[in-house]
Every structure is written in structure tokens, then in C-alpha cells.
């Protein structure tokens, strides 16, 4: 059987220690998760990942990031960046999100955009693992302000697959854009499907 290898653009290769890459690859292999698709060569990408219904999404995503050895920034609730873990999570690309001070987040993203020509920022459009009636619009705003393309990625627990999808081009109607993305993620089964946005 031909071994499938996810393409990582050269400017996004992290060159992490071999131990971390081994841990990521071992976790993916032992749990049976696989990746379908490739990362684009485009310089600036906002990776919108869903559906987000469980804390296990984070475990799967970080295992994949380490196995790919990709340099990717990701947004996470500030409460997971606890003392003792904050430095580790930030070294793995974590950006804490505190909804009471959204300007801090935009400042950090603008700093990344100013320093790097090429980057990927991953985020869950729900903004939480709980069921939401409407996706958040932050990814649209961040993509616009950083002049980035939007790429969709689905996490499917039914077949343990991370599907790297196509680019999404906003139509300018926010509600229509959110509806289209919700429809796209309905094709994937989260860990807790009953919590997925509909």
C-alpha cells in the first residue's frame, strides 16, 4: 500500500525536535487517524476547522500538527493557557483568546501578519465546543484584515479523517457565508454530533 504523505509548503515546515514529531506520528497511527488533502502553497491562509464539539478535537488536531511538523498558529480559549502549560502551548503556535479583550487578539494577529509573509492561522468558527445557533464571524474579519485566503478543514470522527478542503470565497453577505460554511461542516461527524451547528 502506498504511504500517503500530506504536502507541507517549505515556508511552513517547523523543524521541531524528532521526539515531538515521533509522538505526533505515533498518536495518529495508534488511534487510526489519517489526513486527506494537502496544504496550499498560498502565503496567507486562515484554516477554518470544524465541527468543534469536544475537547478531543484539540487532541486530534495537535497530534496532527506534530505529525505534519507544520508551523501553524491556532486560536484557543484563554482558560486552557494555564500556568505551567502556557509556554508550551504558545511554543506550539497557540494564541489565547479572551473575549473580554478582543483587541489583544487582533494585536497579536497583526504582529504575525507584520512579521511573516506566509502563515496559517487555524480556528474553530463556533468559538466553543458547545452547540451554537450561529457561527462566529471572527474568521471572516481576520482573513480580511490580514489579506488571507480562507481554507476549510473537516474533522470526522466517524471515519477518523481530517479532510483538508478547498478555499472558501466569501460572497459579501455574512449570513449567506455562515450558512454555506455550516452546510459544508454538516458533511462531517464530530465527536458529539448533537452539538454541531445546524
Question: What features would you describe in this structure?
Answer:
With 198 residues, the chain is an alpha/beta fold. The protein is built from six helices and seven strands, in the order H-E-E-H-E-H-E-H-E-H-E-E-H. The chain has helices spanning 18-31, 56-68, 86-91, 102-115, 138-146, 174-185, and strands at residues 34-36, 44-50, 73-77, 94-97, 119-123, 149-156, 161-168. Helix 1 (18-31) packs across helix 2. It is globular and about 45 Å long. The mean pLDDT is 90.
- Level of helix content? 25-40%
Low-confidence stretches: none
* Computed structural class: alpha/beta
Global morphology: globular
Distance between the termini: 38 Å
Radius of gyration: 16 Å
Mean pLDDT: 90
Kindly state the number of beta strands.
7
Name the quaternary structure.
single chain
Report the major sheet. 7 strands, mixed
Strand fraction equals: 15-25%
Q: How do the strands of the widest beta sheet line up side by side?
A: 1-7-6-2-5-3-4
How many helices in DSSP terms?
6
Order of helices and strands: HEEHEHEHEHEEH
